[in-house]
Write a structure and sequence with these properties.
This protein is α/β, with parallel strands linked by helices. The protein has eight helices and eight strands. Bound molecules: D-xylitol-5-phosphate (DX5) and zinc ion.
Amino acid sequence: MSKTFRIAPSILSANFAKLGQEVTDVIASGADIIHFDVMDNHYVPNLTIGPLVCESLRPVTDAFIDVHLMVKPVDRIIPDFAKAGANMITFHPEASEHIDRSLALIRECGCKAGLVFNPGTSLHYLDHVMDKLDMILLMSVNPGFGGQKFIPETLNKIRAVRERINASGRDIWLEVDGGVKIDNIAEVARAGADVFVAGSAVFGAGKDSDAHRYDSVIAALRAELAGVA
Ligand code: DX5
Ligand code: ZN
């Protein structure tokens, strides 16, 4: 049976003046998930969007919304995103005082839960919470900005997490975020990822073309994935 691969465009690189249309277009172009980057100018040196924007997008699309929290503290914003229609909420373990509690809170609010690891963050945070995870997100750039270059050492980390997921016997998604492009997505998939965030690669590709203008870039990403066993 072939593996399920999911493409998750990050709206960080979308045109915010027409965000609803961008989301509709990218899903109509074949994307699977909307990746929603939340930055607080505290945990990361940038400021983006919050629950209000998620709530505004919810009636516009049925798509799965994957909220990546780059905020500290974590807990108080979780119920707000759940109410705003998030499907998945992930957070950085070092930004939470009580990781187990934050994961439980996400699930109590009715969302899927995940942990995010920066390039330099140790995987030991996984040790006692594998049974509470629906996804593990590995950053392949330092968080805060779109359009950065993929850090190659991430490939070893992806392999290590893939082994841990397989050993757990659980269906935990392995998402990779940062610098994923047409020319490296197959390598990232071969290392063991199955959910691919692509911000600038997707939204940067459509700047000058017409409606459904993300069709060709998403098809090209999928063609690369089709070659991965
Ligand atoms: C970075 C964000 C990423 C980023 C990805 O902090 O978490 O989701 O927008 O953008 P690209 O694909 O351009 O690296
Ligand atoms: Zn992200």
